Amino acid sequence: MVVRFTSFVIAFTLVFLMINGPAMAHTGEGYGGGFVAGFTHPILGWDHVAAMVAVGLWGAFLGAPAIWILPVVFPLVMAFGAVAGIVGIPVPAVETGIALSAVVLGLMIVFAVKPPIWVSAVLVGAFAIFHGYAHGTELPATVNAFAYAVGFVISTGLLHLIGIAFGLLVKWPAGRVAVRGAGGLISLAGVAFLTGMA
Predict the structure, then answer these.
(1) What are phi and psi of 74, to 5 degrees?
(2) Is 83 in contact with 32 (CB distance < 8 Å)?
(3) pTM of the entire structure?
(4) 8 A C-beta contact, residue 6 and residue 71
(5) Residue 139's pLDDT is what?
(6) Which among 1, 59, 137, 168 counts the fewest CB atoms within 10 Å?
């Protein structure tokens, strides 16, 4: 049942990404439409996609309880970051923090870093603030903020599920190599975001 649901989520997300053209997450332009705007914001920004998939991957790599704690911590803290962005509380270096989240989380997977769960949760939560802040500051003026927030939290959860589904391959030796390789790709993507190459 879980495998079928995860397969459905992956297929749905891939189809959705193929239907929509590429877009940067931080253009400053709104998509309009409340829930739809919130839902599309994370999945149309590759910097968000990389970090959110990494959270799921790392959680799966760490195993229980991290496999469910990290994907819960991220959207919860992200919601607080979004509120900070909506009300205009200044947070420095947001784009740098988003790019670094992919770099750092990718490296955690590559090097099979297994800190205590509270350290993992704090690290993931710290990066979630930057992602949430970006969502909050880019809230289109014409949309319902609650519907927008529900949309980006749901799409974030789906991206985490994709990471978890792929991360479950760590049960096999070849899968462990594949997961660590994916972490490397995520980290390289983060470097590209950080240096402006992507």
Answers:
(1) -55, -55
(2) no
(3) 0.78
(4) no
(5) 78
(6) 1
